[in-house]
Design goal:
Blueprint: E1 2-8, E2 12-19, E3 27-35, H1 50-69, E4 74-79, H2 81-84, H3 89-100, E5 105-106, H4 109-124, E6 131-136, E7 141-146, E8 153-157, H5 161-168, H6 176-198, E9 205-209, H7 211-219, E10 234-236, H8 237-248, H9 252-255, H10 269-282, E11 287-290, H11 295-305
Parallel strand pairs: 1-4, 4-5, 6-9, 9-11
Antiparallel strand pairs: 1-2, 2-3, 6-7, 7-8, 10-11
Amino acid sequence: MRLGVLDVGSNTVHFLVVDAHPGARPLPAHSHKVPLRLAELLDDAGAISPDGVERLISAVRDALQAAEDKGVEDLLPFATSAVREATNADEVLARVTAETGVELTVLSGEEEARLTFLAARRWFGWSAGRLLVLDIGGGSLEIAYGLDEEPDAAASLPLGAGRLTAGWLPADPPEPTDVRALRRHVRAQIARIVGDFNRLGTPDHVVATSKTFKQLARIAGAARSTEGLYTPRRLSRKALEEWVPKLAVMPTIQRGELPGVSEGRAHQLLAGALVAEGAMDLFGVEELEICPWALREGVILRRLDHLPTATEPAA
């Protein structure tokens, strides 16, 4: 069947169409992204601004048209931290439903971590052993650990690259004192939950998903996207520690000229790097591998798990 996934994230609204059936790898058929930066469109009270709501509704309408054009049979719409934590979330969700007919499912931070973990487990397989999965989004950092498809531990922290950039790094390039303050904040937040994971044992394989980690790996020398989905891409803590001070003195326009860094995310790269560095350091990770699959694929896989197979009758 043809599935459509509408991901209302903190940075973008991403509509992904895949051809899929139970037991098979989902095959991407269409992808469309609209940069909204909802995590940066909050007013002083923590509400999504009227302009942000209008832009969100427009993006959902565009996705519905694309779903019709591409013959999507089942639409899976969900929202993550930017909507989840907005003080006017209920009003925003009601507006979206009233004007588009789409009912966004708001995932909790732990659900995000668990679904991302499922995607990583399916990508790397059982032979990868115990996985530690890290994901840096626009609004939050998700962490999950486990041996099976359901993680033994999962956590979400308000350490997204967009959120931190907007709240801690107002100058371009940022003030050294602001960078230092953000570094302390990030590490204090992560340190609170490290023990919950460490008591479960040392992971056999550490995996990272998300655009932030992909961009950091690319500037540290990982293969470019044109070399294919199955080309291994890794990021070492040593390389990241060398890049953080360089990023800290670069203006956004210069970061945007780095290999693999998109113009729309260049301003967030330093905050994301500080989170990645803090997580790798506090969890004792020397090197991690980038996983091409993440939350959207986890949502798709979970949906497929609940479909009847070709030999089973439909309910």
